[in-house]
Amino acid sequence: MTQRLATARLALRARVPDDAESLFAAMGDATAMTWWSHAPAESVAALRERFIARDDGSWRTWAVTRADDDVAIGFVAAGEKRAGVIEIGYLLVPAAQRHGYAREAVGAVIDQLFAEGYRRVFADTDPENVGSNRLLEALGFRREGLLRAEWETHIGVRDTVLWGLLRDEWRGVVGRPA
């Protein structure tokens, strides 16, 4: 079950099928989906069916909303890979990017994951995804490696950069309420 989380400006809650309406601004947009392993959703209905309603429970996913309304502006997801190790992913709608929301939301989820006892959080990104690579570095992740030709995606075969963060390295994040 996805626990509700909060930061100074954001509320994170379980993602629900109705979030497809607002998340389509990102998940249906070719530019926003450039670095994802799958192509953009063709419609709100397809997004709802394929990515939201068909949740198999292997990932916990938080819808990111502004604290003053309940409209999803993005999401953060975490999937356990083995005992103590969890992968994290995230996406914001284009209008919500470059406001520091990703740092707040991802930071809140990392706080929660380490509080639950995970020892390691990791992410993988395309080497050309400058924004995501900068975010991970700003959060304290370390670049751990490059996997060549790792993903076959809608834009071709792509390399991936692996980023890792250990519980003992985590500094926390600004914007978290006391």
UniProtKB/TrEMBL annotation:
Residues in N-acetyltransferase domain copies: 10-168
Domain of life: Bacteria
Name of the protein in question: GNAT family N-acetyltransferase
Higher taxonomy: Bacteria, Pseudomonadati, Pseudomonadota, Alphaproteobacteria, Sphingomonadales
